[in-house]
Amino acid sequence: MSKPRLDPVSEQAIDWMVRLRAGTPDAALQERFNAWLAMDRAHSQAWATLQDRLGGSFNTVRALDRRLPGQASEARQVLLQPHGSRRDALRVIAGLGLLGGGVWLGAGSQLGDALLADLHTGRGERQDFNLADGSRLSLNANSAVDLRFDDKQRLVILRHGELVIDVAPDPRRPLRVRTAEGELRALGTRFLVAQEQEASRLVVLQHSVEARLFDGTVQVVQEGQSALLHARQIALLAGDQRRRADWLNGRLNVLDESLEQVVDALRPYSRGFVRVAPQVRGLRVQGVFPLDDPDRAFNALAETLPIRVDRYSPWLTLIGSK
Amino acid sequence: MQSPPSSKLGFFFSDHHRWLLQHIHRHLRNHADAEDTAADTFCQLLVARVDPDSIEQPRAYLSTIARRLIFDRHRRRKLELAYLERLSNLPEALAPSPEEQLLLIEALVAIDRAIDGLPMLVKATFLYSQLDGLSYVAIAQKLGLSERTVSRYMKQALRQCYLSEVSP
């Protein structure tokens, strides 16, 4: 490995760190170190930089370990699992250009397919999946979930996008859907979950669901109700939002939403990027739009709203004010 | 009218999208992943407000960004799954809350990147000191090394951390 160069003061700071970390430093060593630190502003700056590089995420692990002893050890063992380095991996895929993703990534994983399965849909693609426990999962376009099913739990991790799940009952293993904001625990039920920007949306289509934030806040949401899970609070929403599941039938059914929200719902069906100018994002929209033909939906929007739609290629659509 | 950079990017997307998607598809079997990564790649150009005219070798440029995205995507997932797998073996009382788990996974990704490329024993030495606070004597015993070697490994790891652009 080639040695990148460091200036002499930084090297000294590192040497001090190496010495101080050896064990409990004795008074003489500590004194010499303090003298070095005070000798020059550059010294204290280099020391501060080094401290900074060794703070951050390491502190996160150590703080958690203080609360739950053993976590630092778990972290260490995960980090020491053998795998190709980033540099090696990049070289390999650059050089060969023909490896399947699974060859260098999946090999050696202890998690079999029984434990782990990834399901995704691409742009413009909706799909239904029958899960091993008998539950039925529908993914909206451009959505991804990971499944962690074992003999104790059924956990669906919504990475992005939107799902509707029809949960097969299993009193021993509650089914939970995890999003960036929290978890939704099925109480024998069918419900919709969408990962939105900085919130997850829950619409209960049947029975009820227990919504729980990572800070412990809990709210039971009943059939026909819906809620937005923010990082710190769960907001119950007014009105019946079950129309939001209309994507199952290829329709976007909108009742007074912002243009931005409507475009966000069409995005997963659009081949390229859609950018909405800030001035028109807040325009209110109402109507039913075809999901499988987003261009037609954009044109329909342009007919009823003071907007213009410019296409720079199939890959870039810009929506601005007229 | 649109500003010239947007329309230039539009042409740039048109010119290279098909090639980029095929290129990524060779590395990722799953079509949705490939498309997502291609989109991500272009998004990075948009976010960074890159002028397409300034890119001398578009294909090399795009494939470099895409490679990084592909790798990061999988590396992250692998660390996350390895951690969750270990957690599932812990009694519930010792398991962190979901929020703490997310924080820890973020930390793992950052640390993994900071020490990436170091030999395994160097990593182990450093993590015993940095995470567990062990003395060199204890580390030397655990790993069957001399204390001198432990010092040398520590120096190697600290240098790499110092040189990493962002603190992990």
Looking at the structure, what is the overall shape of chain A? extended
Q: Biggest β-sheet of chain A, characterized?
A: 13 strands, mixed
Please report which band the strand proportion of chain B falls in: under 5%, 5-15%, 15-25%, 25-35%, 35-45% or over 45%.
under 5%
Q: How confident is the prediction overall: mean pLDDT of chain B?
A: 81
The total domain count of chain A is 3
How many β strands of chain A by DSSP? 18
Q: What structural class do helix, strand and pairing data of chain A support?
A: alpha+beta
Our measurement of the CA-to-CA distance between the termini of chain A, rounded to an integer number of angstroms, reads 58 Å
Helix content of chain B: over 70%
The chain-level mean pLDDT of chain A equals 82
Report the end-to-end length of chain B measured between terminal Cα atoms. 43 Å
Architecture overview:
- The complex is a heterodimer of chains A (322) and B (168).
- In chain A, strands 1, 2, 3, 4, 5, 6, 7, 8, 9, 10, 11, 12 and 13 form a 13-stranded mixed sheet that branches. A three-stranded mixed sheet of chain A has the order 15-18-17, with helices on one face. In chain A, strands 14-16 form a two-stranded antiparallel sheet.
- By secondary structure, chain A is α+β, with helices and mostly antiparallel strands.
- Chain A has three domains: 72 residues; 127 residues, Sandwich (Jelly Rolls); 72 residues, Phage tail protein beta-alpha-beta fold.
- In chain A, a hairpin with a 4-residue loop joins strand 4 and strand 5.
- The longest helix of chain A is centred in the N-terminal third of the chain and has 14 residues.
- Chain B folds into two domains: 96 residues; 54 residues, Arc Repressor Mutant, subunit A, CATH 1.10.10.
- The longest helix of chain B has 30 residues.
- Chain B is built from seven helices and no strands.
- Chain B has 168 residues and is an all-alpha fold.
- Chain B is elongated.
- The interface between A and B is large, with 91 and 87 residues.
